[in-house]
Amino acid sequence: MANHSQLGFQDASSPIMEELVEFHDHALMVALAICSLVLYLLTLMLTEKLSSSTVDAQEIELVWTILPAIVLIMLALPSLQILYMMDEVNEPDLTLKAIGHQWYWSYEYTDFKDLTFDSYMTPTADLPLGHFRLLEVDHRVVVPMESPVRVIVTADDVLHSWAVPSLGVKTDAIPGRLNQTSFTATRPGVFYGQCSEICGANHSFMPIVVESAPLANFESWSSLLSS
Hints:
The protein is an alpha+beta fold. It has 2 domains: 15-87, Helix Hairpins; 94-226, Sandwich (Immunoglobulin-like). 33% of the residues lie in helices and 26% in strands. It has helices at 15-47, 58-87, 215-226, and strands at residues 94-101, 104-109, 116-119, 141-144, 149-155, 160-164, 169-173, 179-183, 189-195, 207-213. Strands 3-2-1-5-8 form a 5-stranded mixed sheet, with no helix packed on it. Strands 4-10-9-6-7 form a 5-stranded mixed sheet. Strand 2 and strand 3 (116-119) form a beta hairpin. Helix 1 runs antiparallel to helix 2. The longest helix has 33 residues, at 15-47. It is elongated. 21% of the residues are buried. The mean pLDDT is 89.
């Protein structure tokens, strides 16, 4: 859960999010090295005596041609690796269908019979003590911990986006089209997200709450809800 003074990402709760945080730190180190080099060269130009003599500097031209290419490769290779990892869905243990509406989410557990529900934001007046305003819902999405989950995302009316930052998930919900993503929650907990596509007047009031629980607790919850 993010806080007011937080400068970085939320704590990673899935392998994909861990990779994204590592790539972010890697890209920042590359940017820091570039800025340091540029600052050093600027300082050198301002402090050293200028010379108007023409010098054949093929070595320097070779360096400033090859060095940017190396930097781009250092950024492109891990980025492409993460993109392919995010697109890969291998034998999920659970399939969840998320349908965006104005302004709430509907969920269907396709591996279970008649396990569907709507998820509305909890009004501030009905919010239990200690829960987060504008982020809590009346029905949470419960998934088993350490199990691959496939999420099929679509919309019933306008564009929406199903996003949970700590799980590294953000997928557009488009009417008439099925998009899919996947995640594996590595620890138990409650993870908050919101619709990340402007979808109308109440766009700010359709949160997403994913609760990761041990398999035994998930089975008890699913049996209770589907009965």
